[in-house]
Amino acid sequence: METPDKSSTAIAFVYRGTLVHSTPKEALQVLEDALLGVDSEGKIAFIGEGNETQKLSEVFRFSPSAVTQLDQHEFLMPGMIDTHIHASQYSYAGTALDMPLLQWLNNYTFPVESQFKDLEFANKVYTQVVKRTLRNGTTTACYFATIHTDASLLLGQITNDFGQRALVGKVCMDRNDAVQHYRETSQESQDETNRFIKELLNKKYPLVKPVVTPRFAPSCTEALLAQLGATAKNNNLHIQSHISENLEEIKLVKELFPKSESYSDVYHKCNLLTDKTVMAHGCHLSDKELALFRETGAALSHCPNSNFS
């Protein structure tokens, strides 16, 4: 139980009932008849036992009559963390599942994402996805937006307005032969990424930060990947991308980057595998690549629905 200091803020809510969470030692810990206090800044001020309500009320200065009692089958748990969400793909979630990855990107994804240049359209979709994820208990999210800087900044604003903790990424891609109007030049991608990072950080949102986001190796030149690696290092930022989602994709990476030993090596050479990196999928990584992930501290986001597909 925490002891309040003189700078402690007032207690706004107190709940009594079952708490469920995970610890470094236990995958699932259930605390029955627990008492949880939340201060006016939205932070947990204390956790104690229900039979200590009177004592805790005196220490943390709240009224026992104001305690909210959870019902028998209700419980509180920490918010869920989704480490890989394409916010722009929410508009057609659950549809367009009839093609493998690369064909799916060219026929469905890129044409839809190109529409996010329209800020009214972006606002509608991004508001829906943030509200839906919060409604489902996701209080922290790593978002891919699109190549459009202003729409990506809008996603950051929306997550902040709804109180969701988020890493928001403006997508970078200077290679895309399928949808000609949905790509940037390498210089545009670098310049707009720097603008995105600067403007989002200047907002000083308490829970929302930028994340460097090369879409995936096939949609980026090596020069752009290297520049993004330097940008992430210079600004001490997180990095997100995709890796080894399907075999056709891996074959394409070998053709585009013949001097690299593996898909992971492409990113590693460009300083994009760090202890702040989250790579999605990783279905077909070799043992050597997995060892590289361990060595660099990079993380994998396992996406069950996508990976089963």
UniProtKB/TrEMBL annotation:
It comes from the Eukaryota. Its cofactor is Zn(2+). Keywords: Hydrolase, Metal-binding, Zinc. Residues 75-307 form the Amidohydrolase-related domain. This is Amidohydrolase-related domain-containing protein. It comes from Xenotaenia resolanae.
